[in-house]
Amino acid sequence: MKKHWIISLLLCFCLITAIVFTGCSGNTTSGTSDETTDAATVDEAKTDGIDYMVLVNKTHKLPDDWEEKLETVHITNSVGDDVEVEKKAYDAYLELKAALEKEGVYVDLDSARRSVADQQRIMDEFTEQYGADYAAKTVAKPGFSEHHTGLALDLYLIIDGKDIVENEDMIQYPEIWATIHEKLPEYGFILRYLEGKEYITGYGYEPWHIRYLDNPDIAKEITDKGTTFEQYLGAYTGGEVSIDYGTSGIYTEEELKDAVIQIECKFAFWGDVDLKSIRYAGDEAVTEENLARMNEINPESNYTQVVEFLMDFHTPEDIGELTFNADADYTDYQWWLARTADDGWEIVTWGY
User: How far is the C-alpha of 210 from the C-alpha of 147, rounded, in Å?
Assistant: First the structure.
């Protein structure tokens, strides 16, 4: 979550969709802050400890006793914000930070732990202000955010003494992020949300979002394989996905990619469904009639552009709460998205 951290609560609308790159202050000249273990406030230790390999995502809930067992520290970052982190994750972060500074790369913690109660409060506020449907679309369901664990850390950059905290600004430094990502496994961290794996993680590529595993060997294995945490744990067993952007005389491939990311993030809620392919339905679907249909569905949106994609997937034997046939192939499953000239793609409707 970046400086305006509520934005990062957005669910499947991934921070990289069509807007893709929608205490005591530290010494910003050197990129360091007064983040020392001695200065940090350590919460009272809890019982038994936690499972550092816990999976919390859109379909896996935080364990019920997690918050009672969690031991955290509070620090103040270079922009004066309080950040709460699981203690061992924080200690490892300090080692990572020191190693990066030796290479001239300076980072700080933008956010880490957010309690289930805080998440529920935000959900309640959005529901009251915008309605239940909008809140469900834009706020992560309480109990299903990895930030509840205290093991998920969002970084920001400090370049030439300046705090770079906004997503659209940070994404402009791929070389710096590459240096950071290379060092993560040595200190027990992984990059959590990989580019091209949105259909598994449910989130777009976030170079700043790292996850502590407390095991450098496992972190290195996951990183070297280029796999997701879900795949490593066996929580996703599907194969690779074919993406076909086709040839469009209306939209660029980057615009179509932004739309696909929206679909993939939504798909991540479907659990064990095996996604086979997503393909652009073609410019022939971009008609005034279809645009009017999208505006009829959401009459207050005033969409100006429309797009259709087709999906092939296979359902598991146990489909849970999904309204599909079990152990069945689905082909040409429709996804309709729309947007205004100034906004990102929004999924309007899907299905046959």
Answer: 10
Q: CA-CA distance, 89 to 92, in Å (whole number)?
A: 5
Q: What is the pTM of this model?
A: 0.81
Q: Report residue 316 as tokens.
A: 């598991």
Structure tokens at 146: 């990895």
Cα(147)–Cα(301) distance, rounded to whole angstroms? 31
- What residue ranges define each of the domains in the chain, with the CATH number in brackets? 5-233 (3.30.1380.10), 242-351 (no CATH)
Q: 85-131, pLDDT tens digit by residue?
A: 999 999 999 999 999 999 999 999 999 999 999 889 988 987 888 77
The structure tokens listed for 230 are 């879900």
Interatomic CA distance for residues 273 and 183, integer angstroms: 34
The number of C-alpha atoms within 13 Å of 84 and in the hemisphere containing its C-beta is 14
Residues 167 and 22: beta-carbon distance below 8 Å: yes
Q: Which residues pair with 82 in a beta bridge?
A: 76
Spacing of C-alpha 198 from chain mean position:
8
